[in-house]
Design goal:
The structure is a homodimer. In chain A, a hairpin with a 5-residue loop joins strand 2 and strand 3. Chain A has one domain (9-102): Arc Repressor Mutant, subunit A, CATH 1.10.10.10. Helix content of chain A is 50%, strand content 12%. The first copy, chain A, is globular. Chain A starts with 8 loop residues before the first helix and ends in a 15-residue tail after the last helix. By secondary structure, the first copy, chain A, is mainly alpha-helical. The first copy, chain A, has helices at residues 9-18, 23-31, 37-44, 49-61, 83-86, 89-102, and strands at residues 35-36, 65-70, 76-81. Chain A has a three-stranded antiparallel beta sheet. Chain B binds a DNA duplex through helix 4.
DNA sequence: GCAAGTTGCTTCCAAAAAGTAAGTAACTTG
DNA sequence: CAAGTTACTTACTTTTTGGAAGCAACTTGC
């Protein structure tokens, strides 16, 4: 057993994974169900295909997502979360809750926001 | 109210914040209590001072951490979480739980690891 | 049956972010 | 008053990301 608040290699590794640009967004989308490459680019909006491809490979290498090729005829590739990946739902969920409570989308004007939310 | 699984600007912003290298680690340390600049560098270990300084400024700008100068005589600067920052404990905590359950520190050999954990 | 899509990437190059090392300002200690 | 400590900053290199175009393997249109 490890102390929860001392340095922890596992946490560092997890943080390195989640602490990469776009990973949180990709995970959030995949938590809603499998997606194809093009769907991910569309839903994320501003990610470059180069980086999406890279991120998906990393996540696959970490065992967080799995890649499924459906040889069609219309060939399609779907990405979905593994069990390990699905287990991240709590992290994504808590981040979402925090965001709804604390993140203000429009930083200027009408920034008044108390506990009332 | 917003749908939890559609595109959400708040989540994107939160994800952009957490999705920067070192942010998770910094937050985890500060959740244990205030820290000085040098303590953070020591506890994180491999972060460069340049980037730590940058990250702290970003977090301060986002209202997640606050900077306190104690004009000493031995001048000291302490960083601590704001209420907004402390609210992130659940996210960090869930990531820590996930890491303990799913992240294997030594990737090669003895990698067998079932539900038993 | 072949030019014109579509999908899922990859490659190339420029821009942004992070790593490394040294420097600085304001003290404190010897 | 030279040397050390703390909290950064600056300059420079390496890595990562962005943007656009290219490409292979099909499918559709005519």
């Amino acid at each position: 057993m490890e102390h929860p608040l001392t340095r922890c290699a596992r946490f560092e590794k997890a943080s390195e994974l989640m602490g990469k640009r776009w990973t949180g967004l990709i995970l959030r989308i995949l938590l809603a169900g499998p997606r194809r490459f093009g769907e991910l680019t569309d839903e994320i909006g501003s990610i470059s295909e180069r980086v999406l491809s890279e991120r998906l490979k990393e996540l696959e290498a970490e065992g967080v997502v799995s890649r499924h090729v459906d040889a069609g005829p219309p060939i399609r590739v779907a990405y979905q979360l593994t069990e390990k990946g699905q287990a991240l739902w709590k992290v994504v969920d808590e981040l979402g809750r925090w965001a709804e409570r604390w993140v203000d989308v429009k930083p200027a004007s009408a920034a008044r926001k108390r506990k009332s939310a």
